[in-house]
Amino acid sequence: MQKIHLILRKEEIDEQKMNNNKIAIVLDVLMATSMITAAISFSAKTIIPVLNDAEAKEVAVSLPKGSYELVGEHEGLTIEGFLPPVPLMLKEKMVGKTVVLSTTNGTVAIRRSASAKKVYIGSLLNGSAVAEYVSEHHSSDTIVLICSGSSGHFSLEDFYGAGYILHHLLENGFLKERLSDSAKAALLFYERYSQQKEGKEILKLSQVGQMLAAHGFEREIDYVSQQGIANVVPLFQPEGEVYDVSRGKFYL
């Protein structure tokens, strides 16, 4: 029986092991994977996750002037010359644009997972859609949920988001017996606090949530804490871009 694993920090990603036909679902609930989900929902053309600001600028050079937005943070601070990775603030700016996204944790986790068979982008916003899609297309594969964490540390919000996706994987036919102990722990944590108002409080109690609130981004936390409102399934492509495979394109 193929397993469902949970990695608690991006630093635990073993790129060689990921290469063995694993299906990755990456989470950075505050904010990278929520930002990607929202950008697709807000009609961005595509998203390019990069490792750092230097790579973002290299990518931008190859794009037509006016066709993209540089978005990113490093250790919680907006990169100079970039827009902050908070979706509601950028809703109008992303329409029809390529979003070149650099974050401390989430985009790095996506790139480190690139050797997997498929790399999906998950959040509370789209976790139910991702779980349904993965259940339909990868029911016999080994699934690895990856919490990006926060600069090498465990993050409460990613753990909660992983539990949310695991809950929906089980609802779509996966067996609980397939879950590793860390995955079972995330599932139990989510099921204990599964109400949306409880999830919102968990995000606000987290270290990253407190930092965002201190900088005036409480409305953004409220937005990304919503469960299952986005019917999009972002897939990271080998060429480095993210597309929504739920629309029947860019898959297989």
UniProtKB/TrEMBL annotation:
InterPro entries found in the cross-reference section: ComB-like (IPR005238), ComB-like_sf (IPR036702)
Superkingdom, natural source: Bacteria
Spans traversing the lipid bilayer: 21-42
Keyword tags: Hydrolase, Magnesium, Membrane, Transmembrane, Transmembrane helix
Pfam families associated with the record: 2-ph_phosp
Chemical reaction(s) catalysed: (2R)-O-phospho-3-sulfolactate + H2O = (2R)-3-sulfolactate + phosphate
The enzyme's E.C. designation: 3.1.3.71
MF terms in GO: 2-phosphosulfolactate phosphatase activity; magnesium ion binding; sulfopyruvate decarboxylase activity
EC main group: hydrolase
Names of the cofactor(s): Mg(2+)
Record flagged with keyword Hydrolase: yes
Family annotation (PANTHER family): 2-PHOSPHOSULFOLACTATE PHOSPHATASE-RELATED
Family the UniProt entry places it in: Belongs to the ComB family.
Entry protein name: Probable 2-phosphosulfolactate phosphatase
Lineage: Bacteria, Bacillati, Bacillota, Bacilli, Bacillales
